[in-house]
Amino acid sequence: MAATIRALLISAVLILVCFVGFSYWSGTAYSRYSRFDQPKARGTTGILDDAALSSKITAKMVLDDYVKARSIRVTTAAGTVTLRGVVRSVDEHDRAITLARDTAGVTQVIDELRVEAQ
């Protein structure tokens, strides 16, 4: 009888150790999803300023293969980005909007882009 209880206790401890080890190495929902708000993008003077934000978006567009950045003017005011200009296609339009929205520090994107008639 004592050997059976000992075997059950050792099995329970072994299962518990395996469960904790698996949770540690695989990650848990607690570590994957932060409980705090993500911090705002910060520059050297605090929150990323408008000129730096405009430059960052323009650089993303220059490096992108689908967006012709020279035809798009980017202006920023308090985190609100306005895109003006003419684009060649709806795909280029959508890509430019996506690049602007996915930039850290952007709170809103105002779309004033026109699709060029072909």
Structure description:
The protein is of the alpha+beta class and 118 residues long. It folds into two domains: 2-32; 42-115, Histidine-containing Protein, Chain: A (2-Layer Sandwich), CATH 3.30.1340.30. It has four helices and five strands, in the order H-H-E-E-H-E-E-H-E. The strands form two sheets. It has a three-stranded mixed β-sheet. A two-stranded antiparallel ribbon has the order 1-2. It starts with a helix and ends with a strand. The mean pLDDT is 81.
Into how many domains do the coordinates divide? Answer: 2
**Percentage of residues in helical conformation:** 40-55%
Poorly predicted runs:
none
Global structural class:
alpha+beta
Rounded mean pLDDT is: 81
| CATH-derived topology of the largest domain | Histidine-containing Protein, Chain: A
CATH class of the largest domain reads Alpha Beta
- The total count of helices amounts to 4
Based on DSSP secondary structure assignment, what is the total number of beta strands? 5
* CATH architect. name of the largest domain: 2-Layer Sandwich
User: Which band does the percent of strand residues land in?
Assistant: 15-25%
**How large, in whole angstroms, is the Cα Rg?**
26 Å
Main sheet summary: 3 strands, mixed
Order of helices and strands: HHEEHEEHE
Inertia-based shape: rod-shaped
